[in-house]
Amino acid sequence: SSDDVKKMDDYIDVQTALIFTKQNPFKLYKLLEKSKTPSPIKAGMVATSDIIVEKGPTSFPPGPILGDMQGAGIPAAIDGGKVVIKETKAVAKAGEVVSQKLAAMLTRLEIYPLEVGLDLRAVLEEGSIFTPDVLAIDEEQIFSNFVQAAQQAFNMSVNAAYPTAMNINTLLAKAASDSRNVAVNATVYEPGIMDILLGKAYSKMMAIASAASSNDDALDDELKEALGAASSAVSAVEEVVEEQEEVKEEEEEESDMASGLGALFG
What are the residue boundaries of the Large ribosomal subunit protein uL10-like insertion domain, all occurrences included (predicted)? Predict the structure, then answer.
């Protein structure tokens, strides 16, 4: 509407271009920023930001250029047959006027402080005005925030036991694990946990047997006899298992040998 267009009056100044597009404001801003190119600064121009000269070697051999650089406020010296910049320095602050010497030297050093292109002042879309400070987003940071939010939402749904298509497998696995732990702690005799219960009972029995063997006087004869019988029974079971495994291995070896002979003699 006309009222919405009037909102743009504050952003229209001399040398203003109007762009009419269906492009998303954020994409438009990004497109215009990418189209900008570095440009050297001229004498008498005002620095839009701090102009920094980095420490390090240059491609210039010793000569009059050393004095020119020093005259422009650049801390230069000779080292190893080359002109070097001794330290990183802001040779012009934002808002300062650039001198002729500094402008010429920055160009020779291929330092281009300016960017030439279109500066987006504002975008009007469906009655809302977007300014550059709103449109200049860090895409990587935004993506990272979305990933973090998704992870936190997933964890919250799992902790709250709120089933969704995305977390149902995790919830079922968690429920199975929790029910298994409850059954073990409550000593519920179920086929799925009998191996754990037997292992737990065996460990307790061996602990008691160990304590009894170190302090025989603390136990009566009847308890000693029961512990001894239990220990013997466990040993017997282990021996039977070992014998069964040995017999099985021998049978497998005989079977392999028979197969080999059959293959040899057809």
Answer: 42-111
